[in-house]
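Weekly structure sync, notes
Attendees: PL, DS, HV (note-taker this week)

Item 1: NodB homology domain-containing protein
DS walked through the input record. Source organism listed as Mycolicibacterium alvei. Sequence as pasted into the shared doc:
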Amino acid sequence: MWGNHQRLTALTGRPPIWFRPGTAHYDDVAVDIVRELGEQPLGFTVNADDGATASAAAVRANVMNAAPGSIVLAHMNHPRSGTHAGFAEAIPAMQAAGWQFVTPTGRVVR
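Item 1 (cont.): predicted structure, written out as tokens:
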């Protein structure tokens, strides 16, 4: 985790503030370590693409069924999956319906 923290800091010029383990599992020890390193644990409420295995239609449905305040998890590391196409359909439709997309700190994403 510390190596990733250092790498992200070097790449972006600022340290990360959020951490999510690849398995999405935390125990008390992991939470303590995350906090000792200056980050905050962050989970998700919607698994948009089932680990980049879902079809574009399923991704679209998962994203569009998110509740206000949801944290949506998706994977960009499988470019041939349905993730991009599903989001490309869902986001404009949701924005047209008045949704705003924000970072966990509340900054609006445009």
